[in-house]
Amino acid sequence: MIDTLTHYIDLIAKMIEVIGVLIMFFGLFLALYRAFRASGHFNNDTYVEIRQTVGKSILLGLEVLIAADIVATVVTEPSLRSVLVLGFIVLIRTFLSLSLQVELEGRFPWQNRKPAPDKQPDTDNHTVPIDKA
Question: In the chain, where does DSSP find H-type helix?
Answer without folding.
Answer: 2-39, 44-75, 80-105
